[in-house]
Amino acid sequence: MSRTRRLPSVIQFNQLLSRVVNLKQYSAAIHLFKDICNLGICVPNACTLSTLLKGLFRENRINEAQDLFRKIVNEGLCDLDVVTYGIMIDGLCKAGNTPMAIQLLRVMKKGRSCKPNTHIYNMVINSLCKDSMIDSAFKLFDEMSEIGISCNAVTYNALICGLCNLSRWSEVKMLMEEMIGYKIYPEVVTFTTLVNALCKEGLVDEAEDVLHIMKQQNVIPNVFTYNSSIDGYCLQGRLDEARHMFREMRRKGLKPDVATYNTILQGLFRGGLCCDALVFFDELQAVGLKPNFYTYCNVLDGLCRNSQVERALLLLDALEHKGEEHLHISYYNIVMDAFCENKNLDAAQAIFKGLDSKANVVAYTIMIKGYCQNGLLDEAQYLFPSMDQANLSPDEVTYNVIVQGNLRNHKYEDAAKFLEDMDAKGFSPSSSTFALLLDLLDIKEHNSTILKIFQKWSQSTLNKNQQVKQLVC
């Protein structure tokens, strides 16, 4: 009876396959595809392959996607179109395999029926720029004009972003002039990319010039543009100008988002304007926005930096009353660290003990550092091995903290043991640990154990610092 039934058309099969993929049943989709190929139920087309590839890349099953693509090409199961190649190239680029994407681009270029278009080139150029391979990106850019493929704003934006990341500002200016010369006018994305890059480099005045050009060309800055500008002013400590940009943003009818508030909160707290920052924190909630993880970290850290640890503790208590979903271990760590810095170890211990099983490596490291800084080496030495009981492993920072604590408190034998453990676990001493060891070596009456520490340390590590090597020898 089954042989007399009408077989599904390729369109019907593609609809079924699409639903299976949307349900994330990728193994079932692959089996279904193989069955129709083996049984000859219907001939798959480019749409069939595109559906499968999208699903596989979405789930990061890169090797399976590549195997499927090779099978189609080698067995000639269907004719590939530019959309299918585009999905494959896009997936490879996002997976960090730009060289393979370039190979596919070359295959398309040599082919007769399916040639690469602007969109295909843009994907590869963008990926190369993200990989800081800007010169290779420009080779493809030149290749486009040589074979008659037109560039667009997306092409230029990718290149401008790549140049900005490498601080090649003169080339950015030339490229923008070239872009406008071809009557391809920069969009808000292009300008925002440039403003963001300049602000991160501390070139806030130059970013201001870009904003002025935007206004001249009637390109309206968006929330991301303003956020970048506000961040730039905050990083330079130009807080009045940051607040001016915030007010201008609202005058233009743009609503600041949580990221905007987080940026200005961090800037004001770092500038010591604690009261002003708290006004913005209250305003954020008054306008209906929900503080996120970064908001609370900024406020807690800001209060602690400005000697308002007790107020930070009140906020932490308020978050506890809101419920478990509002809490994060980082909040406790920030306040705990502040108490340690203020030599209030009793308060820090109370928070740490309250964490119980929620304490992470950072929490343990903070307490160990607090004990070491206050000369309580016995407590630090006791807490360090207790991490194993909590199924936690000390990281490189933890080891450096305990080593420095022992060295500062003249516990050279213990410091040597911890350095040996570090070496065995593949960890390295930080620059501050090296500096401390060097200071101890400069002291004429230093203990011979200090030399023993260096001798036991791996030669590869010592070679990184010529000054250390000379002192040991």
TrEMBL record:
Keyword terms: Repeat
Q: Which InterPro entries does its entry note? A: PPR_P_subfamily, PPR_rpt, TPR-like_helical_dom_sf
Q: Which residues cross the membrane?
A: none
Organism domain of life: Eukaryota
* One Pfam family per UniProt: PPR_1
Which regions are annotated as PPR repeats?
Answer: 45-79, 81-115, 117-151, 152-186, 187-221, 222-256, 257-291, 292-326, 360-394, 395-429
NCBIfam families registered for this protein in UniProt? PPR
Q: Which family does it belong to?
A: Belongs to the PPR family. P subfamily.
Family annotation (PANTHER family): MITOCHONDRIAL GROUP I INTRON SPLICING FACTOR CCM1, PENTACOTRIPEPTIDE-REPEAT REGION OF PRORP DOMAIN-CONTAINING PROTEIN
Q: Under which name does UniProt file this protein?
A: Pentatricopeptide repeat-containing protein at1g63130 mitochondrial
Q: Per the UniProt entry, what species is this protein from, by scientific name?
A: Phtheirospermum japonicum
